[in-house]
Amino acid sequence: MTIGGQYYSISLPLSGRRSDDPLDVCVVHLSEATVNGLLQRGYVFLDCPADVNPGASLRIRETVLLAGYPGSSTKYDIPRKKVIAKPFIFSTSYLPKGLSIAGFPPVSHIVCRYERRRVSILGKRHLQTGPLPHGMSGSGIWRVLEGAGNTLRPLLLGILTEYHANRSVIISTRIDVWIDIIRQKVDSAMPNPGLKIGIID
Question: In whole angstroms, how large is the CA radius of gyration of the chain?
Fold first, then answer.
């Protein structure tokens, strides 16, 4: 199906180059037809603020969960016009010092360890070699809390945007940024206790 709606993004930096923008994010206010089409196909939307965690204060080496679909695990069945994607779900740790190394401001980004040869993959007892995470941009990084009755409650912390192989880190932009675009352009009542951003297009 075609995804339709209104697009909003953060204004370009003074250089005029998007490559100089550490945020580089966009929000789509989906059309009613798109929302209905996704719901009919079994997709589920997150509730805000119940399912997100803007303004999160993470502990050093706190364990977080990342889930997405790396390109190396995705196959294309051209004759049948199908995409066969294998999910990759793994846990890792928050590295606050990685932000200054990579040059991303800690107020807007979360940096996590990703040593490909030592990955803790969901459902596996021992550390495994993980795939190259290229293609996972747009995937979520989650804090998982214990809920009532031994249940687990995932909260969305951010959206994966960068992979730096030479530093063995994955970088995510905090969910605060997306929420604030929604607050400014779509729903002024949207609560955002986290980061407030500047002018957006």
Answer: 18
* Angstrom distance (rounded) from CA 165 to CA 29: 33
Residue 93 and residue 64 in contact, taking contact as beta carbons nearer than 8 Å: yes
For residues 22 and 109, the answer to whether their CB atoms sit within 8 Å is yes
The SS3 of residue 107 is coil
Answer for the pair 165, 149: CB distance below 8 angstroms, yes or no: no
The answer, yes or no, to whether residue 29 has pLDDT greater than 90, is: yes
Q: Distance between CA 54 and CA 1 in Å, rounded?
A: 31
Residues in the chain: 201
**Predicted confidence band of residue 157 (pLDDT cuts 50, 70, 90):** very high
Residue 2: partners with Cβ closer than 8 Å, 6 or more residues away: 34
The CATH homologous superfamily of the domain defined by 47-175: Trypsin-like serine proteases (2.40.10.10)
Cα–Cα distance between 140 and 112 in angstroms, integer?
Answer: 12
Find out whether 119 and 113 touch, Cβ atoms under 8 Å: no
pTM over 0.90: no
Q: Where are the domains of the chain?
A: 47-175
